[in-house]
Amino acid sequence: MSESELFIAGIGVSKSVVSTIVTLAAEKVEGVVRVGGNDIASNLVSVFTSRAVPPEATVESEVVDGELKVAVHLAVFYGYPFTKLAASVRAAIATAIREQVGVEVGSVDICIDSLVFPKE
After folding, report:
1. What is the CATH number that goes with domain 5-116?
2. Does residue 44 register a pLDDT over 60?
3. Helices (H), the chain
4. Measured between alpha carbons, how far is 105 from 22 in angstroms, rounded to an integer?
5. CA 80 and chain centroid, separation
6. Nearest residue to 32 via CA among 91, 78, 83
7. I need a labelling partner for 13 at 20 to 30 A (CA). Which of 3, 50, 99, 118 fits?
8. Model-level pTM greater than 0.70?
9. Domain range list for the chain
């Protein structure tokens, strides 16, 4: 098993696969601008290479005591209460992983790294 692979419930799953599932689920939640914060490194990579930062850099996943634990970094719109938004994102991610991978999620940590103000 490599460092880029998670082993849970008798199967090996690439961390990049988990990151993709988490990203797609989180970005469907109203109030989420994107997965990944607004840090300078991400912006420079995007600007100078016309490539997005890989999802693995914004989604962390690991198996601890047989449970999948996920942390996701988000940019969110101003005006959405953080606790309600985080609960919606957690639910969306847990459902997506349960449906796609077939395992329960032990925890989903939400990290709000940047706030985006809508243009008026």
Report:
1. 3.30.70.1350
2. no
3. 15-27, 40-49, 82-100
4. 11
5. 18
6. 78
7. 50
8. yes
9. 5-116
Question: What is the spatial distance between Cα 62 and Cα 117, in angstroms, rounded to a whole number?
Answer: 33
Structure tokens, 65: 């005591």
Total H helices, total E strands in the chain: 3, 6
Phi, psi for 76 (deg, rounded to 5): -125, 160
pLDDT value at residue 10: 87
- Answer whether 60's CB lies under 8 Å from 107's CB: no
DSSP state of 117: P
Residue 114: CA atoms inside 13 Å, Cβ hemisphere, count? 15
Inform me whether the pLDDT recorded for 83 exceeds 80: yes
- Could you tell me if 111 and 72 are in contact, meaning their C-beta atoms sit under 8 angstroms apart? yes
End-to-end CA distance of the chain: 50
pLDDT value at position 34? 95
